[in-house]
Amino acid sequence: MRFVSLFLNNRLTIAPETLVNDSSLKAVPFFELPMVEQPPLNQTFRYDEKLQQILYGKQLLFDELSFTVDQIQLHYENGYVKYSIGISKTSNGYVCSRCGNEKSRLFAVFSCFRCKSDSCAYCRNCIMMGRVSECTPMISWCGPKVRWPLENNLLWNGELSSGQQLASQKFVEGIGSEGELLIWAVCGAGKTEVLFKGIEKALNLGLRVCIATPRTDVVLELAPRLKAVFPNSMVASYYGGSEERETKAQLVISTTHQMYRFKQAFNIMIVDEVDAFPYSYDQTLQHSVSLAVTPKHFLLYLSATPSKTMKKAAMNERLPCVKIPKRFHGFPLPVPKMVWGGEWKKRLERGKLPATFLKWLKAQAESGRRAMIFVSSVSVLEKLIELIRKEVDVPVDSVHSEDPLRKEKVIQFRNEDIQLLLTTTILERGVTVPFLDVAVFGADHDVFTESALVQIAGRSGRSKDDHDGKVLLFHYGKSLSMIQAINHIKNMNKEAGL
Amino acid sequence: MSYCLYCHEPYSEAWSWEALIGLKQSPLLCQDCEGKLVRIKGEICRICGRDFSVFPEQYRQDDCCFDCIRWEENDTWTGILQQNRSLYVYNDYMKEMIAKLKYRGDAEVVKAFYPVVSSEFKRISRDALLVPISLSEERHYERGFNQAELLAGGLKKQVESLLKRKTHEEKQSKKTRVERLSQKENPFEVVDSLKVKGQEVILVDDVYTTGSTLRYAAKVLIEAGAKEVSSITLAR
Ligand SMILES: [Zn+2]
Ligand SMILES: [Zn+2]
Ligand SMILES: [Zn+2]
Ligand SMILES: [Zn+2]
């Protein structure tokens, strides 16, 4: 949009062109404005508390706010709101101040009706959250801080395992100071409970906490649990389509994407499944985290399968780390078994199943137990399901990332309406179903990395009444990842003293 | 290595002689995205250009669909829109792409269609006026651009913004067909009637859904003296 600069009460200030009825003033795109000093805070101004609540710790666009340009400008003139540039030029292109993108192929220009420039540059990387272009001012709050409740009591009296206890303590010790910590907890260790004490301490110190996770399902599952254990606290969830994005929140549970909206907001940042972020532990994530945290902050990473970079940092003691090698129920992690499946790909093309797999399949169907069967691609999925349906007469279904019925099918599987569920690696995390066995069809394929296999194996044996689920890797030659995954699991069991 | 203009994934182009010697433009979309789009080919409705291969047989009569027959039977609309031609079937993926373009404001997406648009409509009359469907002032400001104008830009031909939208758009989808047809006031007006007089006009829009927007636009142009009006859209 275009702004004009003008003198108001003897100060040079700026205002959106639509608010100024003076055709002698020249309107220019926002980024072309001269530098003006931020208006001083007018103590007597009655600011809008709703606006404070929404903007506090965030950086938003005019389009994202339900307030009029007029109202926002008034807060600017009284020193309560700040405008800053969304896209800046650099020596070799542009940088987006919302998402940190600097890749020139993720910027484009268009003939912009708002600023009348025929080459207004915008960021394509974060376009899903609304367009930030050169002429788009980013709006943030610079008035008084939001007040949080003084008492945030933890309403929970469950018990922690000894591993959980240790991790919880380490986290609590970190609260109030700057630092980082990696909690390396096996699948089924119960990582959420580990967070409770630390969060309680942080909230009572008046600190703001965020739990960032790559998946919306996790936000949806965590938010009600945290609201229940912190009944006096301000808790809100952020994901695409969330209705709590304008509520006041000291504890925020957010998807990674939504973190782009925050700016210098959190003293404590908890990054869940740090290895599973869309781009994993890379610059994009680091950037959005670094924008969302306050200059002094504590970072907690959670993972069952940390990346190489993280493990290395932990080993060199550059990154403090505490492991929870034992599952909450105290039994060892099921160790995957490798089973020769022969040339499974060729057989599949010929419409045949490997003999070992067929034998297992029939026995599994007979047993009445549920199983997840992981495959390397959608095309394998489609061929395999057809063959399986010819061999066994039990409810079989399949899911993949673009399956519109994904959620429904997972529920059906949970309810035992589906006995055998074929899936791509999309369900390697998150699905926790008791009384379950797991098979990987074609485990030697590249998509089955060490961490994928550890996560897949982690689906089984989740309940104490069925801690010994089977994990079978049908392969055509052992891959390094298979061996590493088995060693990973065995080591964890050893560390747990099992 | 190229990056897909839409999904940003890297992809390698299929090797071909035509591409090598510069006869064929390199594709802007990856094979995955390209594969999810369906070009309209083969049998189509003579008037609205809909793809008959994805259209139930019982709703057509010879080379015309029932929707068009109904339009043509209505005296007010007979012959107003000569014909419409569209490039792609308006399937879920196309919907997603157009939504990203229009509602997220990712103007660059339109360029993915430029090669197809320019080669497919190469033969359109040189003297015809190319007129994009306009947006209301409010909507235009909100979006920052007019997608129909961007699309028309791919035709390598002078674009004439001769239409003005007087009233703010309502969501067409929220109205029933009867309401849409009975809409009394025409939302469009012609900016420069002199330019239009005696001319052949080609309207450009992103999607042909019910055909009413294009017909309202065509009507004001005919009333302003245009000889005949046809249209092209990205999807149908
Ligand atoms: Zn960006
Ligand atoms: Zn602009
Ligand atoms: Zn693509
Ligand atoms: Zn038709």
In whole angstroms, how far apart are the ends of chain A? 64 Å
Query: Kindly, what is the distance between the CA atoms of the first and last residues of chain B, rounded to a whole number of angstroms?
Result: 32 Å
CATH C-level class of the largest domain in chain A is Alpha Beta
> Which structural class fits the helix and strand makeup of chain B?
alpha/beta
Name the structural class of chain A: alpha/beta
Q: What CATH architecture of the largest domain in chain A would you give? A: 3-Layer(aba) Sandwich
Question: What is the β-strand count of chain A?
Answer: 22
Using only C-alpha atoms, the radius of gyration of chain A works out to 27 Å
CATH class of the largest domain in chain B: Alpha Beta
User: What ligand species are in this complex?
Assistant: zinc ion
The name of the CATH topology of the largest domain in chain B is Rossmann fold
**The named CATH superfamily of the largest domain in chain A:** P-loop containing nucleotide triphosphate hydrolases
Please tell me what the overall shape of chain B is: globular
Account of the protein in words:
The complex is a heterodimer of chains A (498) and B (236). Chain A contains 13 helices and 22 strands. Chain A has 498 residues and is of the alpha/beta class. Chain A folds into three domains: 113 residues, no CATH class; 163 residues, Rossmann fold; 159 residues, 3-Layer(aba) Sandwich (Rossmann fold), CATH 3.40.50. Chain A has a seven-stranded parallel sheet with strand order 12-13-11-14-15-10-16, with helices on both faces. In chain A, helix 6 links the parallel strand 14 and strand 15. In chain A, helix 3 packs parallel to helix 4. Chain A is elongated. The mean pLDDT of chain A is 93. Chain B is of the alpha/beta class. Chain B has two domains: 35 residues, no CATH class; 197 residues, Rossmann fold, CATH 3.40.50. Chain B is 30% helix and 17% strand. A four-stranded parallel sheet of chain B has the order 5-10-9-6. In chain B, strand 1 and strand 2 form a beta hairpin. The relative contact order of chain B is 0.15. The model of chain B has no long low-confidence stretch (mean pLDDT 88). Classes of the chains: A alpha/beta (498), B alpha/beta (236). At the A-B interface, loops of A face helix 6 of B. The structure holds zinc ion (ZN) (4 copies). The site of one zinc ion (ZN) has 9 residues of chain A, from loops.
